Amino acid sequence: MDRVPTRASSRPARALAAAAGWSGKARAGLAIFASVLLVATALSSVAQEQSNKSGAFEPQVGQAGKDVVWVPTPQSLVNKMLEIAKATPQDYLIDLGSGDGRTVITAAQKGLTARGIEYNPQMVEVAQKAAKAAGVADRATFEKADLFESDFSKAQIITMFLLPWINEKLAPKLLELKPGTRIVSNTFQMGDWQADETATVTDDCTNYCKALLWIVPAKAAGSWQLGEAELQLEQKYQMLSGKLGPTEITDGRVRGTEVSFNVGDAKYTGKIEGKTMSGTVSGGRNGNWTATQK
Ligand SMILES: C[S@@+](CC[C@H](N)C(=O)[O-])C[C@H]1O[C@@H](n2cnc3c(N)ncnc32)[C@H](O)[C@@H]1O
Prior knowledge:
Oligomer: single chain
Strand content: 25-35%
Bound molecules: S-adenosylmethionine
Distance between the termini: 46 Å
CATH superfamily of the largest domain: Vaccinia Virus protein VP39
């Protein structure tokens, strides 16, 4: 599991950040990536030399970013992130903090339309050149922007390799996206919003090898009329609790627009469409059910 580096390994990065007048959060961000930065030092000095000779900008692993440094997602994890998001050519993907553009370009190679939002204009150029070289510049586009000021409401898939505090700050905005929107993060959690799925790659990956998937849940909280009974639901992210008549529901969950809960042995599954929920019930009381929001 990837952990925040020890104090010893993060101290130089913290000191550097403090000297540069970075905020506490930005400093913590730099510290998280400090171990990768140390490993990358030898590589960067070679890259630095190359960039000096050619005069062209060469990205350096660990280079400063507005809120988080640049560390690329291993390609095997990029593939896994798209796999667990069940990406299809019909999807529009946005990568928040797109770096060298690898997630956007891989998505475009799979037939998706994809856009990267990246604060560093030099990284935007690097990504645009890479998209052109890969022959997907028509479907893989990049924009120089701050992810905190960007509109990503049109995306069906959001990918990100940011930091826990950034994910947590984005969560309220992500929860307002269309139900069913998939959000995939490299390694980092999103506060107390538990992931719906996780997957880890072991091939060609030594650091940052875990993908976490969240599916934006439809809103189900409130009072519903289900046949003769009142269904009262409370919702925390994708988890549902509440009662059907006097009986507590169990295992209540919303996955996009799909809803499921049990009442005793009866298993209710269905779909939420605005103010109506409907589906089937099994486990004794077999049949169809419909509920209307009050
Ligand atoms: C850890 S890298 C991830 C790059 C890429 N998504 C990947 O997975 O390979 C984070 C990227 O976010 C960019 N970044 C940092 N703060 C940002 C902000 N506020 N808005 C947009 N991009 C930002 C950095 O420049 C860096 O390229």
